[in-house]
Amino acid sequence: MSAELKDKVRSFIISNFYVSDPSTLDDGMSLLDAGIVDSTGVLEIIAFIESEFGVAVADAEMLPENLDAVNNIAAYVTRKKT
Amino acid sequence: MCGIAGIVGLAADAEAPSREALARMAGALEHRGPDEFGVYRDRRAGLAHSRLSIIDLSSGQQPMANTDNTVWISFNGEIFNYVELRAELEALGHQFRTKSDTEVIIHAWEAWGDAAFDKMNGQWAVALWDSKTQTFVLCRDRVGVRPLYYAEHQGRLLFASEVKALFAGAPDFPRELDPNGLDETFTFWTVVPPQTVFRGVRELEPGHLRVWTRGQLTRDVAYWQPTYPVGTAGRFQGSLEDATQALAHALEEATRLRMVRADVPVGSYLSGGLDSSLVAAMAARAKPSGFKTFSLRFEDAEYDETPYQRAMVERLRTEHAEVVVSRQDIAEVFPSVIRFIERPVVRTAPAPLFLLSRLVQRSGIKVVLTGEGSDEMLAGYDLFREAKVRRFWAVSPKSPWRPKLLERLYPYLARSPVSQQALTRQFFGRGLERAKTPGFSHEPRWSSTSALKRMFSAELRAQLTGRDAVKNLLATLPPEFSQWPVLAQDQYLEVRTLLSGYLLSSQGDRMLMGNSVEGRFPFLDREVIALANSLPSAFKLKVLDEKHVLKRVARELVTDDIIARPKQPYRAPDALSFMGEQRPAWVDEVMSEASLRDAGIFDPKIVAQLWSKCLARRDDGQFSNSDNMAVVGVLSAQLMHRQLVREAPGTKQPVLKTLVEM
């Protein structure tokens, strides 16, 4: 996983979900648990992955392991692109 | 229905209430009572009143006194059993000068003291001044239909139906936002009485009585609070069929009382849902011809319920009127809505109701029945079903099929990509280990709303450090809470947090009185509440069938389609109402960095991110629940600050029809 990719994911989460204090956003933290992302917000993450990285997210891949933390998203995209 | 206000000296050297200040207070409440204005004042106390005449039109002026002019009252509301109470008082030797319910309260208080209020069935905010004993009483109905605020300032107590009248009575009162009130709003969806969003201003809790004697607070007691069965004690003993008949009887009587105890015509709302359809059907039976009904329709098909409304109108043959609401309408009326609500909201749902009460007023009707309270008393909300599924799931958290029941509640889950089980579970399965802890039912709502506090300014967040609104609320639960059935616990929390503080105020009293219309709520009748609270949980929520016993009551009265339809929560277009090219100028004004900084509630940088994201996505369809709540929350808080804090309070002094100076 490149640092650049992870930074892109992280800045998307911060701006799209208006996180006021980025220092509180731990890369391993569950975004759903923190209330930053709700069930519709997950769709925004999927749309971002698809448009930004050209990765098509299959229904079966819509799992917390892939989508519910900055680290998880970055790792998932990295796996799909390689 | 009316507005009440006044000033009472607490400190020995407090300045006497002036006629001008009392008149300004009445003037600030003109929308609540445009028909007549009155003021009483002596050296210690002043009462003001703005009247919407409904009972005893010719002689019900207020403030009103007892026989020897020593006890004075300013009263907003209706006592539906005043005829029966009056007969009881006459038997005790009391003599009456008018035919009003107002006078009955005065005599009831003289006869029974504090115990008078628990004998009343109705909706009220009362201020009563006994000049002989220098005793001042504030009292509010059981569930908080009628509003009542108070504040202390310079040795004096100010009280009023709305905060704007407090401010009008004391223009030098420091108008500031209370961080704790904002914290509660962005946790529970609203402030929970006695908390308000204004520093130094308190709301009298529903079912409470607060008394001062010779300037000292002597008691603040709950003369009533919701109770539910403990074991078999207090539980309804009959069968489901018995309960159906008992509920039908109680609702018919509650509706009848609300029809006949008025000297003006009474109409009804008709939303297309079960509750208002049933109320309208019962009312139309009591008034077979010329009964008027009123409906909201939406340009957005997603929120519209027209076919169900029309089917009921056809069945009841009422004189029907409707108003169609667009997004633009909501944006245009929103500043007025917030001026009346006097608090931030995270939904626009009050706005269409303001347009509906305007239609009622223009149709020449002063009183409407509505179905409010049914979902709280008989377990209609999705939240109750969701909590039941989550508790069932918590018994076996690893079960693959238990959480599938969520799809029964939210059919969209089955259609949406998010239906992928793992994500659904992640979202709804938070905190399953706390299934037996108070507040479990409301945790998803409270935590998703609390997440919006990340928009708060650094200054506001610093002031809230260490504060936990949920913990504070749960610390004040009644001792018997955990012995109630779990459904009753969930109902109690819903009643406590939202019934008075949001549903009956922001969506109720304020939107009705904003157009001088009185709401009456058969489901909140004293007898209906007592019966509903006594029913076994399974009569209310049968497996996942909400309001089960009520649907049985409705069988003969409401169309089958309405009984069979899934409950549709009342919603209106939220954030998208404010994002169109043609949006009114106020939207961009209150969203400006300068305006955000001036109010100090939100971080302008964060709001700018939210706003640009939403503007960019406005053509993509629906926003997420969080974004909708965030946008409406920011806009309403900003409007409230502009209109209630920055703008100087009203100075209008209406002509006083009643003026008594001692």
Structure keywords:
heterodimer; A: 82 residues; mainly alpha; 4 helices; 55% helix; B: alpha/beta; 6-stranded antiparallel beta sheet; 28 helices; 18 strands; 42% helix
Description of the molecule:
The complex is a heterodimer of chains A (82) and B (662). Chain A is mainly alpha-helical. Chain A is 55% helix and 0% strand. The model of chain A has no long low-confidence stretch (mean pLDDT 91). Chain B has 28 helices and 18 strands. In chain B, a hairpin with a 2-residue loop joins strand 11 and strand 12. In chain B, helix 6 crosses helix 23. At the A-B interface, helix 2 and helix 3 of A face helix 15, helix 16, helix 27 and helix 28 of B.
SSE blueprint:
The complex is a heterodimer of chains A (82) and B (662).
Chain A: H1 3-16, H2 39-53, H3 64-67, H4 70-81
Chain B: E1 2-9, H1 19-28, E2 36-41, E3 45-51, E4 64-65, E5 71-79, H2 82-91, H3 101-112, E6 122-130, E7 135-140, E8 149-153, E9 156-160, H4 163-169, H5 179-188, E10 201-203, E11 208-213, E12 216-222, H6 240-260, E13 266-269, H7 274-286, E14 292-298, H8 306-316, E15 319-325, H9 327-341, H10 350-362, E16 367-369, H11 374-377, H12 382-394, H13 406-409, H14 411-415, H15 421-428, H16 443-450, H17 458-463, H18 469-474, H19 486-503, H20 505-513, E17 518-520, H21 526-534, H22 537-540, H23 548-554, H24 560-564, H25 585-590, H26 593-599, H27 604-616, H28 625-646, E18 658-661
Parallel strand pairs in B: 2-18, 13-14, 13-16, 14-15, 16-17
Antiparallel strand pairs in B: 1-3, 1-9, 2-3, 4-5, 5-6, 6-7, 7-11, 8-9, 8-10, 11-12
Helix pairs in contact in B: 1-4, 2-3, 5-16, 6-7, 6-21, 6-23, 9-10, 9-28, 10-20, 19-20, 27-28
